[in-house]
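@channel sequence for tomorrow's demo:
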Amino acid sequence: MACYFSNSVSYGCGWKRSSYSLFGWNIGKPKLAEDQRPQIKYHDTTDLPFPPSLLDKTFLRGRELKCCYKATIDGFSAADFHNCCDFKGPCAIIGYTNKSFKFGAFNPEGYRSTDDYYDTFDPFLFYWTDSDKIDDPIVLPKVGGSGAALFDYARGGPQFGADGLLIGPPLAPVMGGFAGPDTNSGIGDLRRAKSRLGLSYAKREDGKESLFGDENKATLEEVEVYCSPQIASLY
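structure tokens (generated this afternoon):
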């Protein structure tokens, strides 16, 4: 698994990257005292938009989950996304298109703006045939080996595989982890999404090669991210 450490500090959603990590990325640095650590802000949600059983085979099984990012409130910029979602641990992402299509994805690695990728079989995509339902999403697992299952671009939103699902991809190429002299340029817009299935993630049950059905691109009206506050508090 590729791993890259960033010592930058980012602000947004009431969160600043701390110097301690449950998973050992910041070994050797002192943990901030409780009264020095900023409080993470979560959005009030009455119910999860997906069944908890969806995550039964993941590290989030049985944990309390809260919404750490809501695009219509926090902003659709990839910078807004990372300010709210970086260093929160594994997470579930839910998206809604302007055609009332509901879909999602699970990221077992979380986000850290590393401009790197991860080899793993653990992530998956999912969607509903009836967007009004919460139960019974259809899961699309990783296929074609574990390689390049996840990308974590600082200027882009969630990306699963090279083409499986991209939400707010960077507007300019990211090469070798170097974003260029102006790192604020080319930041992705999470209203934009595209998908091609079959190479990195399984095709839909109906054989369609896009998560969105007949079209490989979609316009999103909402993106939400759910994480474990317990895990997030340990970073």
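heads up for whoever presents: DSSP finds three helices and eleven strands in the chain.
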